[in-house]
Amino acid sequence: MADEGASAGEGLPPAGEGVSAGEARVAVEAVFREERGLLLASLVRRFGDLDLAEEVTSEAIEAALRHWPAEGVPARPGAWLLTTARRRAVDRLRRDQAYAARLAVLRADAERAEPAPAADTGSVSGAGSTSGAESGEPADERLQLFFTCTHPALAAEDRTAITLRCLAGLTTPEVARAFLVPTATMAQRIVRAKKKIREARIPFRVPGPDELPERLPGVLQVVYSVFTEGYAASSGPRLQRLGLAEEAIRLARILRRLLPAERETAGLLALLLLVHARRDARTGPDGEPVLLEEQDRGRWDRAMIEEGRGLVVRALTGGPAGPYGVQAAIAALHDEAADVESTDWAQIVALYDVLFTLAPSPVVAVNRAVAVAMRDGPGAGLALLDALAGEPRLRAYPPYAVARGDLLTRLGRAGEAAEAYRQALEQAGTEPERAALRRKLGE
């Protein structure tokens, strides 16, 4: 397809010196990774069509890869991509007679609302609305897209799928692998979500103050789900999917930047940072998991820990704590301790008690039981775990069986421990987990 918009150079930033194709690709990827969500959000806001926004964004990337090697990377590459994508969208609408009336309305809106060229700051955000955190104006369009993709009218699995696809920038096959479904199934979920957004006319906006408390937890849960899959993969050859965990942190940073007054955005970001800080020590040379008490704490990311600790203070200040803030406080106590023995287990148990009142779940109960075992001994922890034996949601949760196996081993009940490890082996999703469990059974 001819690149009428980019080749003419009208309205585009001046091009620099020519670069190699490889350098151009690196520049495109850097801009696209950082600002993809806002680029899509700006286009959806303008044209009201998520499919169209994705298509013209891809075409703008292709145009950049053709033009930047010869013309140089623009001084404002994000604005270049946005300008090119907008022109492609207008061209498509012009060619589609079914959109003729709609285009007339869009043109009228654009004439009333189009910002002056001087407002273009060199990033995608310079061409759209500004962050409410910085200007007091309406919130950044990325935030509007967050709430559109996580609207309660969408099924829970569809919300996560479309958020990963549109905001984290994962391909459909990557999203499918993250959630253990065929690519075709995931593609159907994404198509279904887009169709629902379009047909139900889900508003492209941040909820009002009366709606935000109800809607924000869903947004945070989606980001947390992305991180959880990256922290402990459901299946595959690796225990961790670091790229996915880092994408979740990037999304959490955007939320934190755009909703600075919401303490749970600080809590979520703190939790992700404090847990991800241990990434390099969580696996051995062969990729097998390394237990917390056996990790080399010198390999933990101290800068990330310090950032997380600062955010914990913000999350716990100014009112009752939320569940992410409490979980972040627990992670901070682990990260601050020199070793397992000096960890403040009494405080961790107390925090789990608070967390269970805020967000009761069998997973929280398992974690609390392990903390009690560290405070009061393996017998006390095992009693709590055995009390959860009838919980159906733990039947396919390997950490429950692993925790029982570890406590039974510490109590000298080797036969029962082996049975628990065999149960965990049947449930384990990744090869490193299975290898570690086979080794425990051998011992």
TrEMBL record:
Q: Which UniProt keywords apply?
A: Sigma factor, Transcription, Transcription regulation
All copies of the DUF6596 domain together span: 215-315
Q: Which residues lie in Low complexity bias regions?
A: 115-136
Provide the residue span(s) of the region labelled Disordered. Answer: 1-20, 112-137
Q: Name the coiled-coil region(s).
A: none
Any Pfam family the entry gives? Sigma70_r4_2
RNA polymerase sigma factor 70 region 4 type domain: which residues? 151-197
Q: Does the keyword Transcription regulation apply?
A: yes
- Domain RNA polymerase sigma-70 region residue range list: 32-97
InterPro entries given for it? DUF6596, RNA_pol_sigma70_r2, RNA_pol_sigma70_r4_t2, RNA_pol_sigma_r2, RNA_pol_sigma_r3/r4-like, WH-like_DNA-bd_sf
What is stated as this protein's family in its record? Answer: Belongs to the sigma-70 factor family. ECF subfamily.
- The name under which this protein is listed is RNA polymerase subunit sigma-24
